[in-house]
Input
Amino acid sequence: MVTYPITMTVNGTDRTDAVEGRLLLVDYLRNVLGLTGTHVGCNTSQCGACTVLLNDQAVKSCTVFAVQASGGIVLTIEGMATDGKLHPLQQGFWEEHGLQCGFCTPGMILSSYDLLKHNPDPSEVEIRHALEGNLCRCTGYQNIVKAVQYAARNGVLSVPAEESAQTVGAQEENGVAG
Amino acid sequence: MAYASLIGAKVKRKEDPRLITGNATYVSDLRLPGMQYVSIVRSPYAHARIQGIDTAAASGMPGVLAVVTGEDLLPLYGPMPMESGGEGEAVHDERDLGHTHYALSVGRVRHVGEAVAAVIAGTQAQADDAAAEVTVDWEQLPTVVDPEKAREPGAPLLFDDVPNNVERVWTHTEGDVEAAFASADHIVGQRLLNQRLCGIPMEGRAVVAANDPATGGLNLWTSTQAPHLLRTDLCGALRLPENLVRVVAPEVGGGFGVKIGIYPEDIALGAMALKYGVPLCWVEGRSEHMLATTHGRAQIADAEVAVQADGTVTALRMRILADLGAYPVAPGLSELTGRMATGSYNIPAVDLEAVTVFTNTTPVAAYRGAGRPEAAYYIERLMDLVADELGMDPVEVRRKNFIPPDAFPHTTATGELYDTGEYEKALSKALEISRYPALREEQRTRRLENSDRLLGIGVACWVEMCGFGPFESSVVRVEPGGTVTVLTGISPHGQGQETTFAQIVADQLGVEFDQVVVRHGDTRETPMGQGTMGSRGLAVGGAALVGAVSKVRDKAARIAAHMMEAAPEDIVLAGGSYQVKGAPHSALRLAEIADRAYSDDLPDDIDPGLEATSFFKPPELVYPFGTHVAVVEVERETGYVHLRDYFSVDDCGPRISPILVEGQVHGGLAQGISQALYEEVVYDEQGQLHSGSLMDYAIPRATHFPMFTTDQTVTTTPHNPLGAKGIGEAATIGSTPTIANAAIDALEPFGVRHLDIPMRPEKVWRAMGA
Output
């Protein structure tokens, strides 16, 4: 089996591994790093359960090879809370009953995070559009939209500590104040 | 005090902290030492004989531990338990109609996706690689996919002993149907399709199986709604006693009915884990889900009603043809459709038939509503067709035929005993919050203006049966420190009973909400239960909880009486503490009573300990109801049906946790609306699945829905101590006919009387004569 060396910063921790070329980023996160909060729901990049942030951008990690992500910075659901304090998006999903079975929730939170970083005060239409790539079978999206609105109202701009200075810099470039 | 008002309060879910941080454990998150991975080899043909399976190449692939065929496992287990995947009371039928089917098929397959072999390897990729190298020598057989063709003479037979592929025929007649039709002023009939759907919980199925050195038995983690029922079936197939088998449903990522029954992978992994002595993991891929997890609905109904000039419906005739797919997983569901065929209406005469047929397709079983959405769809379309025929407002036709509130309990002509209902009240409220007259006025204006966005208004009045038995169970245990552990026989997977049940315990036992932990989904620690399905969690599981709480409270009162030197009958639970009536200064907290309960300082007539078990057997089913109103706009140029507004008024009795009930309504609406507008499983004539991934099967997205307006009326049931009815399936049942009625209403200027769901743009566009 041919393997390739990869390095990656995941939730603020530097990782180095040797992986098969065909290993998907989601399988690297789940099976190699043990970060099982990122889920697989469809294998065809339709459902968004596997959404993580790669270099400050939401990606479906079932459609990215681990080797493609090498050198990158990855944020998963496990990196959202800081010092035991929930991120406002996590708080929003809890406050607004934005989840039932919870399987889509990590992907929803990461996609919402991507939205709010680029658009801190989105309209309902903009939220729905931003979440179009994330399927939920439980909630009819009603309270998910409300959860994102809650986070927008309640300081989503606090950045998870695990994110690097580079990510914070990218936020500032997008005109997002800290 | 706070905990004295928790029932009906808005509380944040206990389940959520683990789910929003990525710390929950679904089956596919489990990692056992030495665990091996399984890939299933599936049939590419809808009907074929297996002439031989060549496993040699696959066996030599890297990492492969074993390649296993159906023949290999035959000595280790019996056939698949059938009739395991439905809702409603268990059906006992010992006939051998397709009941000799094995977890890994032997000799013959009857649908695409049927499991015929399994590969065990060190990684999932190695297992998948080797599975691709397993060669099966197939002899294709004639295929039948259309259920109407399946029952025709000369159709290919799935089972040699089942003539015309007819698995069963259910009939029910009541009243003088012939006379009613003979004297009718109008006869309104329609053939109504209820298309096949796929469940698509966001987590597919997954199984981890490991032998248990402690007992020599088996531990099985599986994504199921009913771990105890699954254990019973697993033990039957593997010929093991129940005390050697532990079934765990850890975090389960949605079910919607398709995770009720046992599946081939549960049994195959169990058998292989025992055979090879290593833990095994299988995780369903999404395309596997669409091929190998049971589908839902798949009915055709030919229905007609006899109607008097004033709109009174006097009789209903209905012939239901139910597509069972390839195996009898849930053959009783069409009977549930028949039993709910008259809906909210007093229709005194019925002539009903449900014919259930085998086809070379994935088996059809429970999917959110399971037989009742079909019934609501049929009767609510018929009511609109009656209105159309008579030139009446659809609302007035419904009012004309409602079962009046003073007629309850009401035995329907279909034989159901409806408990309670205030149908007019729910209808009136729905019309009020939707501003129905103003909507009709807007519609008139639009039509006069010849608008290219056609406004449609749909109304449906739903009722359903739920709260199935035969029983549910609960243990309530006050721990020595005064915290409370609840063990329940239901198995929630998103419904939130860890929260709802804690609210009930807090209120009724006098303990802080935060001090209550509710455990479920593990047969090793929870009492024998039925699981979560059929909108029964609160109405049946909650009732069992109330029974156990009541026993514990009574004992706590006896201990408190001893501690305060009072008579037990003088002890009251007030403001969260146990007090002597009229002397609140002497209050004892539950923790103090628990401390005494586990001490040696008890009188001889009180046993130590503070816990109780209760089993609740529902005396009758419960019948929640409601009225929904939808407003759609149909684009004249494209046929696209745009949902503008949705109003639902649902009556499930008292709500313990209103925000969770509303969540159930939201999700239910989404699924019902989606059946009306988007979803459909499509096979070709050879039984190949065309809708085999989420690229081809339309699950609705956030952009497809507006914010829903939800409201309620409250009618209690006498059949359980909470007075609660079910809510899980309610909104799904109500919304499909509401949307269909709205879309067809929009097309009235084009003379469209009926269109089958789903209302996809092309179909709607063609109906407008474009």
In short: The two ends of chain A are 46 Å apart (CA to CA). The mean pLDDT of chain A is 90. Helices of chain A lie at 25-32, 88-95, 105-118, 124-130, 142-153, 165-173.
